[in-house]
Amino acid sequence: MAFLTGPLPMIPQTGAARDAGVSDGSPAVVALGGGHGLSASLSALRLLTTDLTAVVTVADDGGSSGRLRHELDVLPPGDLRMALAALCDDTDWGRTWRDVMQHRFQSRPGVNGSLDNHALGNLLIVTLWELLGDPVAGLQWAGALLGARGQVLPMSTQPLTIEGDVLRRTATGEYLELVTGQARLATAGAMGKVSEVRLTPADAAACPEAVTAIERADWVILGPGSWYTSVLPHLMLPELRSALTRTKAKRCLTMNLTNETKETAGMSALDHLAEVRRYAPGLRVDAVLADPGVIEDRDAFSAAVAAMGGRAVFGKVGAATGRPIHDPLRLATAYHDMFGEN
C-alpha cells in the first residue's frame, strides 16, 4: 500500500492555525467523551469553530468494538468512528462516507456470518492502524477520507479496561460486587449503586497529542455522555487529569438530559457534580451547562457549581421530541453564547 507511505493528510490540528498566525478567529476547542454524548457535542461545536479536537474514551469492550479488540488486540474503534462521523464534511462526499462508516453488516436470514453487526468504519479504522502501525495517524487518514472538520484522538493509545464496585442490596443485607468491562458497567445502575470506578492499567499514558490539544485549547468541553463510562474516565487517567487541571483553557461541563440512566439510577444532578469533584478534586470549571428540566433545585445546583469555581448556565438544549437527546442547533446556540460571554 505505497500510497500510505507518504506524508500524513492535511487536516485541521488544534492550535496549529493559531500557532502559524493564520487563525480565522474561531476558538480552539477540545471535546472529551465517548459514544452518542460526544457525537452530540461535536455536531454542535463543528458549527462554531474550525479548530476542533475530539478526545475519545478507549475502554469499550462490547459489540463490534469488543470483538475487534479481543481478536486483534487493538483499541476499540467504535466511539472513535462515531466521533469521525459527527465531524464529516457536510457535502455529498462527506455524507456518503459518513453513511459508509456507520454501515453495519447483516447476514441473510438463517446465516450467522462472521461480519454480522460489524460497522464497516470499525474495520476501515483497524485496517489503517495495521497498515500504518500508528493509531493517531490511522485516524488522521480516516478523517481525511471523510473531510472531517477537526481531528479525532484516543485518550490513550493503549486499550483500557474499566471496572467498578456496585453496591447490591438483598433481603439479607448489602454487598459490593465487582463489575468489569464498560458494556457491563453501563447497565450496572439497574443492579445497584455504582460506588467506585477504576481504569486498568491505572497509570496508562495519555495520548501525547491529546495532552497537547488540551494545553493549547481556548475551551475544553467535558460531557455529555454516560457518566461513569464516557465522561469520568478522562479524569481517571493521571496525565489527562493533570492536563485538564493545569490548562489555561476555559472548561465547560455539559450535563446529561436525564439523570435516570441504567448507569446512574437514583442519582441527582448534584450527585453527578459530586462524582466529578471526587475523581478530580483539583479541577476548576468555568461553566456547567444544564437543561433546566433536569435540575431539581437550581439554587443548590448553582451553589455546587460555584464551589467548583464556575457558574451554572441553564438552557433548553434537548430535542423538541422530548427524548433525552441533545439538539445540535440548540446546543450550538448555548455554546456560542457561553463562548461570547467569557
Automatic annotation (TrEMBL):
The organism's superkingdom is given as Bacteria
Main localisation, per the record? Answer: cytoplasm
Q: Does the keyword Cytoplasm apply?
A: yes
Q: Which family does it belong to?
A: Belongs to the gluconeogenesis factor family.
Question: What is the documented function of this protein?
Answer: Required for morphogenesis under gluconeogenic growth conditions.
Give the residue range of the signal peptide: none
Q: Where in the cell is it found?
A: Cytoplasm
Q: Which organism is it from?
A: Arthrobacter citreus
Q: What is this protein called?
A: Putative gluconeogenesis factor
Q: Which UniProt keywords apply?
A: Cytoplasm
Cite the SUPFAM superfamilies for this sequence: CofD-like
Q: Which InterPro entries match?
A: CofD, CofD-like_dom_sf, Gluconeogen_factor
Q: What is the lineage of its organism?
A: Bacteria, Bacillati, Actinomycetota, Actinomycetes, Micrococcales
